[in-house]
Amino acid sequence: MARRFDIMAEARRVVASQNRWGSRIVDVAHPRAMNRIANTVRSKGGKKIAVDMGAKQRDVRKSTKIQPARRRRPLAAVIWAGRPLTLIAFQPRQTRRGVTAKAWGQRKLYRGAFIATMPTGKRQTVARKGKSRLPLKTLYGPSVPRTVGRRENVNFFNRIVRDRYAPEMRSAIRSLDRR
């Protein structure tokens, strides 16, 4: 499951206030501004999502991709994709009763779970499926796309777009006007 956040803003509002530039400069400046905003959404959003999930920013950044705006398609998008992160990514601690991990920002006990080194050499937080030694079930925490889709995070991204569009557009127009 992937979440896509499209960065759309209306160029006419900013351009109308600065009427002296031609449409050619605006056609080049608008995608530049959209791409800058997409980078801002990825960086600030990644920090917020990492805090919400209780994960590292590196894990969130790995599952993030930017689809840049172009002149013919002046719409940038930030795409978050990926499966839920394994519980080993959330600072697990082996205890007598099981494993505690800090998924979703709060430490929780997973009874009967333990940290094991798998045959591939990776460490995993696992639990037994039944009474016998095998099979083992890998335990998972939150996923990046699901966390991104929460209403508070979408509102956060919209606020970034709203606040950053006019300054980025002005900066892009000024940069092109200097040429």
Protein topology:
Elements lengths: L1 E6 L3 H7 L5 H31 L3 H6 L1 E4 L8 E6 L11 E2 L3 E4 L6 E4 L2 E4 L5 E6 L7 E3 L5 H5 L2 H27 L2
Helix pairs in contact: 2-5
Note down, in words, how this protein is organized.
With 179 residues, this protein is of the alpha+beta class. It has 2 domains: 2-83 and 143-177; 87-138, no CATH class. It is built from 5 helices and 9 strands. The chain has helices at residues 11-17, 23-53, 57-62, 144-148, 151-177; strands at 2-7, 64-67, 76-81, 93-94, 98-101, 108-111, 114-117, 123-128, 136-138. The protein has a 3-stranded antiparallel beta sheet with strand order 1-3-2. It has a 3-stranded antiparallel beta sheet with strand order 4-5-6, with no helix packed on it. It has a 3-stranded antiparallel beta sheet with strand order 7-8-9, with no helix packed on it. 31% of the residues are buried. The model has no long low-confidence stretch (mean pLDDT 89).
Shape: elongated
Question: Regions with pLDDT < 50 over 5+ consecutive residues?
Answer: none
| Number of separate domains | 2
Give a short account of the largest sheet: 3 strands, antiparallel
In total, the number of strands is 9
H/E order of the elements? EHHHEEEEEEEEHH
The percentage of residues in β strands lies in 15-25%
Q: What is the SS-derived class?
A: alpha+beta
- Bin the helical content: 40-55%
Main β-sheet, spatial strand arrangement: 1-3-2
Number of helices: 5
Q: How far apart are the termini? A: 44 Å
Task: State Rg.
Answer: 22 Å
Average pLDDT score: 89
